[in-house]
Design brief:
Layout lengths: L3 H7 L4 E7 L7 E7 L4 E6 L5 H16 L7 E5 L2 E5 L6 H6 L5 H13 L13 H15 L7 H16 L3 E4 L8 E4 L2 E4 L6 E4 L2 H8 L10 H12 L5 H25 L9 H14 L4 H11 L5
Antiparallel strand pairs: 1-2, 2-3, 3-5, 4-5, 6-9, 7-8
């Protein structure tokens, strides 16, 4: 924080007020900066040694800006500080409280802009089986008891789930497409926390949207919305099962991540564990997962997770 203001001044910006914003699950710090001319921008301060990550994230942002994706416009960067367009405060969780009738159509418009965008030249490589499996290992570590007798059965199931996701038809995936990363701005839905977008499973972002946080109540008829999305976005046959596989992997990954953050003392994420765990359990039951996985999710939902 100490170096933020002089860095902004060095970029030709004249900050008047700097207000912390709720960040994501990374170690970046996010601020709204009001400038002397009354305009505002969003500045991200990366941790010590984060210059390289900041540069990589800016490269992804510039790639998306160049293709007209609905993400904030990159404005400036210096070292471990990046500056972007300010989309305001209306994330979709807040907008949901107003019951806006156009919301679902607008969200689908935004999803389509990602899904239908060619990923040629995107800096991050496509998701693959080893990547999905590494994410699931976080769930094993923080939600499964050490030495559990069903550990080998669980590992085999998670291995297969990772392999199956890697075989899904791929599209450009935002990667964290939930209501707190989607903002109502200038009559459309925009996405933040886009730094890890890359090619991945076609139904992955839809699973994130409808099965996490306040997005669970986003659609009164999720099956109908998904069918509309499948038709508009051209998902190949078998998308319903792929959607459940994505929901299962994503749910396990998120629960594991939230438990890890809780163990690190970042307890604000614990409030979302129960809802995500319940949604993941529903998907896993459809996939005939080992009972030990469901038991671990229930422990996490009840607060018994490590």
């Amino acid at each position: 924080m100490i170096e933020l203001v002089p860095t902004l001044a060095g970029l030709g910006l004249r900050p008047v007020t700097v207000v912390p914003l709720a960040g994501d699950a990374s170690h970046r710090l996010v601020f709204r900066v009001v400038l002397a001319d009354g305009a505002s921008v969003v500045a991200c301060l990366y941790p010590d040694g984060g210059d390289g990550q900041a540069a990589r994230d800016v490269e992804v942002q510039r790639w998306g800006n160049g293709r007209g994706l609905p993400i904030p416009r990159h404005l400036a960067c210096s070292g471990r500080v990046t500056v972007s367009q300010d989309l305001g405060d209306l994330d979709l969780e807040r907008v949901l409280r107003d019951g806006r009738s156009e919301l679902l159509g607008a969200v689908l418009d935004t999803l389509a802009r990602f899904q239908l965008c060619p990923a040629d030249g995107l800096p991050p490589p496509p998701f693959d089986g080893p990547f999905w499996r590494r994410e699931l290992a976080v769930f094993e570590r923080f939600a499964m008891p050490d030495g559990h007798r069903d550990g080998p059965i669980v590992s085999e199931f998670l291995d297969e789930l990772a392999r199956r996701l890697a075989a899904h038809p791929s599209r450009l995936v935002h990667r964290d497409f939930h209501v707190n990363n989607l903002f109502w701005h200038a009559g459309a839905v925009w996405a933040v926390d886009f730094q890890d977008m890359r090619r991945g499973p076609d139904t992955y972002d839809a699973a994130s949207l409808l099965r996490e946080r306040a997005g669970v109540g986003l659609a009164r008829d999720p099956a109908r919305w998904l069918a509309t999305a499948a038709s508009r976005l051209g998902w190949p046959e078998g998308w319903r099962e792929r959607y459940l596989e994505c929901a299962a992997q994503r749910g396990l990954k998120v629960v594991g991540t939230f438990l890890r953050l809780k163990a690190e003392g970042r307890g604000r994420y614990a409030a979302w564990v129960a809802d995500v765990a319940r949604q993941a359990e529903a998907a896993l039951r459809s996939l005939a997962s080992p009972p030990a996985v469901v038991e671990a999710l229930r422990r996490a939902a009840s607060g018994a997770g490590v």
